Amino acid sequence: MLRLVPATCSLVLALSGCVHTPTEKERRSAEIHYDLALQAQQQGHLQDALRELQVSLENDPDYPEAHNAIGILLHMVFSRPAEAVKHYEHALKVRPGFSEARTNLANVHLDQSRYAEAIKLYEQVLNDMLYLTPYIAQANMGWALYKKGDTTRGVSSLKASVTTNPGFCLGYRNLGIIYDETGKLDESCRQFSRFRENCPEAAEAHMREGVCLAKLGQADAAKQAFQFCEAKAKAGEQEMKDDCRRLLEKL
Fold this sequence. Notes:
0% strand, globular
């Protein structure tokens, strides 16, 4: 049986200063539970993933990948951003060059409308030439810049994201929203079409394209888009399914 660290060095205490140097056996256990967490997350068992990550950190309180992974769950799934920030910051304390954790920390700031802080972190990430997914930071920084009031730089950063990764749906989605909100409807529809082309299974892509087409007066194309939206909506997207049905009925 794998031995866990004593209760006095639990996850909570570890984060508040309890010092424990894990043994090789404990480090290996941390890696095993981290891998189990990733498997559980991929299967949609998010509470199981959280538990496995907690066990991983009980074994190795300074395991940066586990801190980053649990931060993602706490932020994106369980809506506990303050706790997520602590985990991202711990990961960066252990590994200052951990650009994925820095991006995820910036994402929390972005969701909290702390745009200047988010932009600063995204800029740091984009200086890391070894970062494997710069288009994520580029797109999110573009959105932060736009929300902060710098539309020109925001659009430029978002365009860079889809140039870096032509299949990056979020980049096209956010470009479409910005062009729509700034009165450039034709360009907005083009971006939403690219969103739909690259993410054909996303109900939102069909809905946004349909709304844009309806604004252009292209009723038949809009109807088809709303029909696809209703068909593509997944089990957890009942509200979107209902919205697309209502939009279709209005046409």
